[in-house]
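User: Could you check the structure of this?
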Amino acid sequence: MKIHKIIIGSFLLAITHFTAIAQTKQLTEADRLFNTKAYALAIDAYTKAIEKGETSIDIYKKLGDAYYLNANYKEAANCYAKLITPDLKNSDSEYLFKYAQTLRSTGNYTEADKIMLQFNAIKNKDLRASKFIEKQNYLERIKNIAQKYILTNLESNSVESDFAPSFYKDTLVFSSARDTGFLINNVHEWNNRPFLNLHTAKKDSSNFMYLGSFAKELNTKTHESSTAFTKDGKTVYFTRNNSENGKFSPDKNGLSRLKIYKATLENGKWANVTELPFNSDEYSVANPTLNYEEDKLYFASDMPGTLGASDIFVVAINSDGSFGTPQNLGANINTEGRETFPYISESETLYFASDGHPGLGGLDIFYINLQQENAEVANMGKGINSKQDDFSLIVNESKNEGYFASNRPKGKGSDDIYTFIGDPPLQSLNAKINGIVIDKTTKQLVANATVTIYDYENNNLIETVSDENGAFTTALNLPEKKYRFIAKSNSYTDAVKYMYSPKNENEIEEVVLELSNSKEATSVGSDLSNYLKLKSIYFDTNSSYLRVESYPDLDKVANYMLENPTVVIEVGAHTDSTESDTYNLWLSNRRAKSTVKYLVSKGVDASRITGIGFGESQLLNKCKNGVKCSNEEHAVNRRSEFIIINK
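Assistant: Sure, the predicted structure tokens are below.
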């Protein structure tokens, strides 16, 4: 069983306290185990109940959740599949999301994306849905930003769960469920394995060697994990179950919440263990991390104001040692899912684990620089992330190395700690770009053309001018990303070309940009549907949900807009007359907005697109209200137009 799921699955360490009462029904016993968070035992009980003929939806929900919270995504997917209706529309939205997550973890991204599109149709205000819609090309984005990492499984890992590393002097302090002989009878009723305690390892010439338990005065008969040390090594913040005198203090539901504690080093021993003032018996607070100045503490919590299962918060540490009021980091970072295990680097880059942002499956590790305005959350890429749970990353930017935990296959235990360095580590490639600008028709070289290079997020990186021979030379130093080159010159239509940066250091790329004189290929008032030879834009019946077969045509529109950056269009959505006028106007407006949203997700500036629903007000044939028409005749009126309103 994956111990980390106890923390990040339901964001609490569930300590079961119940009296042994004789149970006569298998299902009753299974429900009792599930409700007391004894998921591993509940799996066996539900499986036996199913073998005896129990097949209710509720059973498969709970069995699927029990697998999900034990990181057995393949079996969870099998259970969730039984909850999904053929048309998806009547499915429980939360289980649509969970099903999509488990499908990603099994590598079935095509089906997962289909499920997420339906999740968006049902819950389009959900941040997990909107972030998916904004980044439907997330797999390509992850590929584009991925660096080449060299990963090493630490020799200090055990057959149990090892995770949440932190830097302490010249060692790593981490959480582990290994059996060290210390408090040997301290086992978790969830899986009959030792509780989490703090341990330490030190690097020798090539790897990390296990040193033993860290600070027996901090390790108790409860869970301890997730440490954060001050730079002088004299103060530590760490996570522990709500406890008193070393014993669990469960709430009314029998659950022992997580809390952050602080301790100071006195005469070589950790002492003065105190709770932080914003802890509570009603919610969990965990996984602390300090910023470089040590005046802010970041952590994960499900306290009031949380958007999802757990969010990332920050609290000020005042000069007198007191604390301010915790602040939620907001919807740019947090979602209705799970955001947890934050880490702040020297450069004020926040690393965290999430299943709410689009990723490869399970928990992925993401990052965002908190000092940059309008910065976006980005995936760490394949290598660091896998189809399984990847979390608790820390990084030493000066040494270009870091550590994280994962339950990916071929590890030593249920969770292992890995060290990583880049190739090159967390830094840039230097690639020389040689280019020329030519007239597409005459093939003549074009001098004094302005060439601008944009990155994948549409940031203006470099601007240069072609010389008298139409040539330009520049360099790119961002790793393996997709770039857009735009050449401009008077009397020409802009030339656009896309290119991936080289994978090898100092590799030289050649770029040819062809300028065209055909500025009048399209004019104001014309419909791009005709110019681009678009087919119909398809929606599900009575729905604003774009069907997958519409994507290629919409991609043509998006590419045209990106290649012609001054063009402004109006998206007009039209319906047939088979429903009421009011309904059709409402539906067409939603379809227009859905179309605009898709184009924006492909990189088109939202200020260059407007969307209007016309309902049945502009029919192309006789099929108005009261006129009997065939399905084919009605279909003529169901259309989308892309009218150029400015160039």
